[in-house]
């Protein structure tokens, strides 16, 4: 081989290697194993028998999740309000910002461990993950589109007809297949590799510090009745004594019209709090210190206040500064850096 040929072959080899390194998503997809239940998690609530996760279905769902044609003017994707680096929330906004920069009324909830959820959204009203995307797609402040328009836009793109064929055996784009593909992506957004998880699975070298352990003890005593392990939510809707917001958001009541549901909101998971500020359904607290002080001194004595916050004659949960620091130390063990950097879930 002469020098010229050697240079050409070296250049070609470097080019191929660079392309491979520039496509980490493809590398992750090639390892695709489908949905895997973490060892320290309970059985999921999602009905996988009706929608088994396949590599092709997941890839279609991911493409749709990041597809701007789901919105009226082709500018907003699901990923616009659910950003992976923010644990699939819209970091920095108190309430969601949608199409034409319209403001919503609630903070974007994280897309995380949804396979274990039985109800969706801060104020309820949706109890099937396969139906949930209809709400953001059709909501005026979010994507402001109708479903048939979305499907028609998808149907004319050869990219998607081919992907539907690979995922479902037919090029026909239907509502059911569209929704199931999105669900296949969302149920794969599993956060289960925090320090806490590794300790619970007794992985080598994983131990709490003294402060984290003390915070864990406090957590189990003061917080776990609503934020049950290992998901750190019990999935219920509760009134946690927040002052009524300026728009008078009544939470679950808007879905049920039951007086006893006024100002009840879904109990959020406490996982990945480092990435998901601001906090509460309307993003009113910018820090965990603000959240803990709410429970310590700002809980309102409301008719529907949750009983666990209405004991000992004073609303709330008494917390001194030392206890707050220890609780925050423990909560930081629930942050899952692997989740927010999982290339398989990213847009590119």
Largest sheet data: 2 strands, antiparallel
Strand content: under 5%
Using the 3D structure, state the CATH architecture of the largest domain: Orthogonal Bundle
Radius of gyration: 23 Å
**Structural class category:** mainly alpha
The CATH topology of the largest domain turns out to be Cytochrome Bc1 Complex, Chain D, domain 2
Q: Number of DSSP helices?
A: 14
User: What count of structural domains?
Assistant: 2
Q: What is the C-level CATH assignment of the largest domain?
A: Mainly Alpha
Secondary-structure element series: HHHHHHHHHHEHEHHH
* Number of DSSP E strands: 2
What is the arithmetic mean of pLDDT?
92
Strand order of the largest sheet: 1-2
- Unreliable residue runs: 14-21
CATH superfamily of the largest domain: Cytochrome c-like domain
Task: Describe this entry's structure for a reader.
36% of the residues lie in helices and 1% in strands. It has 2 domains: 29-190, Cytochrome c-like domain (Cytochrome Bc1 Complex, Chain D, domain 2, Orthogonal Bundle), CATH 1.10.760; 195-337, Cytochrome Bc1 Complex, Chain D, domain 2 (Orthogonal Bundle). α3 (55-65) packs antiparallel against α7 (158-168), α3 packs across α8 (175-186) and α10 packs across α13 (321-331). Mean pLDDT is 92; it is low at 14-21. Strands 1-2 form a two-stranded antiparallel sheet. It is mainly α and 348 residues long. It has helices at residues 3-21, 24-29, 55-65, 78-81, 134-138, 147-155, 158-168, 175-186, 195-200, 210-222, 253-256, 288-298, 321-331, 337-340, and strands at 237-238, 265-266. The protein is built from 14 helices and 2 strands; from the N terminus they run ααααααααααβαβααα.
């Amino acid at each position: 081989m002469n020098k010229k040929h050697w240079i050409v072959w070296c250049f070609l080899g470097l080019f191929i290697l660079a392309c491979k390194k520039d496509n980490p998503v493809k590398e992750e997809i090639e390892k695709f194993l489908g949905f895997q239940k973490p060892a320290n998690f309970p059985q999921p609530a999602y009905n996988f028998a009706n929608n088994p996760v396949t590599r092709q279905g997941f890839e279609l769902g991911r493409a749709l999740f990041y597809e701007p044609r789901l919105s009226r003017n082709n500018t907003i994707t699901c990923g616009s309000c659910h950003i992976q680096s923010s644990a699939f929330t819209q970091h920095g906004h108190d309430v969601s910002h949608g199409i034409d920069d319209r403001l919503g009324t609630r903070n974007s909830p994280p897309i995380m461990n949804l396979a274990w959820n039985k109800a969706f959204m801060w104020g309820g009203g949706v109890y099937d993950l396969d139906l949930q995307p209809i709400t953001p797609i059709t909501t005026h402040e979010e994507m402001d589109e109708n479903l048939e328009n979305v499907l028609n836009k998808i149907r004319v793109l050869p990219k998607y007809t081919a992907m539907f064929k690979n995922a479902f055996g037919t090029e026909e784009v239907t509502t059911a297949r569209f929704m199931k593909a999105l669900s296949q992506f969302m149920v794969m957004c599993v956060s289960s590799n925090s320090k806490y998880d590794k300790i619970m699975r007794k992985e080598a070298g994983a131990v709490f510090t003294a402060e984290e352990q003390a915070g864990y003890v406090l957590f189990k005593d003061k917080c776990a009745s609503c934020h049950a392990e290992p998901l750190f939510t019990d999935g219920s809707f509760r009134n946690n004594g927040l002052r009524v917001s300026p728009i008078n958001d009544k939470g679950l009541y808007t879905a049920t019209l039951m007086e006893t549901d006024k100002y009840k909101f879904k109990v959020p998971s406490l996982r990945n709090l480092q990435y998901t500020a601001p906090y509460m359904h309307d993003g009113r607290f910018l820090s965990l210190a603000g959240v803990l002080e709410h429970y310590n001194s700002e809980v309102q004595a409301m008719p529907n206040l949750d009983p666990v916050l209405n004991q000992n004659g004073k609303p709330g949960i008494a917390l001194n500064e030392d206890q707050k620091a220890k609780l925050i130390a423990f909560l930081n063990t629930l942050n899952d850096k692997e989740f927010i950097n999982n290339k398989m879930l990213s847009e590119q």
